[in-house]
Amino acid sequence: MRPSLQELVNTARVVSLPMTTRFRGVEAREALLMRGPLGWTEFSPFTEYEDAEASVWLAGAIDFGWVKQPRLFRDTIRVNATVPAVTAAEVSRVLEAFPGCRTAKVKVAEPGQTLAEDVARVEAVRRFLGPEGRIRLDANGAWTVDEAEHAIHAMAACDLEYVEQPCSSVDELAEIRKRVTYMDIPIAADESVRKAADPLAVARAGAANILVLKAQPLGGVAAALRIVSDAGLLTVISSALDTSVGISMGAHLAAAIPDLAFDCGLGTAALLASDVTEQPLLPVNGAIPVRRVEVSERLLEQNAASAERTQWWLTRLTRCHALL
């Protein structure tokens, strides 16, 4: 049964975690943590999301804290490094925080930056990883089809594993996938799955080779597994810039997929300057363990959000719970 609002509020703690590098325009990541019968869980939709979308994240948080999780097929998950839209000179510093990671996801198409800056960043990642490293791009849907084709061509020499969400719509993804077939570079869909009324529309339209799935935004591990099964496409599990509690949720999802072909985007605790646990899920030898996270009272207090922001999150929790 779904927990009451009061049950959620009783253990709710709101934190604001500083980032090592500005990421998606965020300099501090806010999250609301709660403890259910199965352990700590996380509600952390980005602040700009409307309640209808955010309520799905709450369903995911409740699923992880109150519902028995599916069978797991592995106890560690290989993860990728994540490179924000930094300058080429900063790439080495970022990648050094992801020891042993053979794959890097590089943010491109940042507002206010040029294609030349994207190319320089990707080339710097290739130099750091060497010829055997794997590079994937993430444009967060910011390119038009023509811009995407031009940009992918400009960076194709860096031997790209795939390009994530180059354009925003399903129709655009289908078109760019056709246009880059000759380059043999797969297209992955993220926002077109987790922000869509129909998360399977991408698969039916043949608009992507790969799905990038996040547990919390899709309503939890079980809901995401149904998408994996119904879509029939290769899958990458990623985080939404979560605390280690949220990353644990993603790790359980990745571990519940029988055939996991790609390194997963679950190493992003390395982008946090502080976390909520004394044993954060940081990459070691390119992987993280699959385990529940025990939070630290000291770190909860150290990183506690202001009274105003805490009230903002509790009010949001109330609204979203009413929508479930």
What does this structure look like?
By secondary structure, the chain is an alpha/beta fold. The protein has twelve helices and twelve strands. It has helices at residues 5-11, 51-66, 91-95, 115-129, 145-155, 170-179, 191-194, 201-204, 221-231, 244-255, 297-302, 307-323; strands at residues 13-23, 26-36, 39-43, 76-78, 81-83, 103-107, 134-138, 160-164, 187-189, 210-213, 234-237, 287-289. Helix 5 crosses helix 6. It starts with a helix and ends with a helix.
Primary descriptors:
single chain; 324 residues; alpha/beta; Enolase-like, domain 1; TIM Barrel; seven-stranded parallel sheet; 12 helices; globular
Short description:
The chain is an alpha/beta fold. It contains 12 helices and 12 strands. The chain has 2 domains: 5-69 and 298-323, Enolase-like, N-terminal domain (Enolase-like, domain 1, 2-Layer Sandwich), CATH 3.30.390.10; 76-296, TIM Barrel, CATH 3.20.20.
Please render the helix and strand layout as text:
Elements: H1 5-11, E1 13-23, E2 26-36, E3 39-43, H2 51-66, E4 76-78, E5 81-83, H3 91-95, E6 103-107, H4 115-129, E7 134-138, H5 145-155, E8 160-164, H6 170-179, E9 187-189, H7 191-194, H8 201-204, E10 210-213, H9 221-231, E11 234-237, H10 244-255, E12 287-289, H11 297-302, H12 307-323
Parallel strand pairs: 5-6, 6-7, 7-8, 8-9, 9-10, 10-11
Antiparallel strand pairs: 1-2, 2-3, 4-12
The helix content is 25-40%
CATH class of the largest domain: Alpha Beta
- Quick one: biggest sheet? 7 strands, parallel
Q: What is the fourth-level CATH superfamily of the largest domain?
A: Enolase-like C-terminal domain
CATH topology of the largest domain: TIM Barrel
Number of strands: 12
Mean pLDDT: 96
Euclidean distance between termini CA atoms: 12 Å
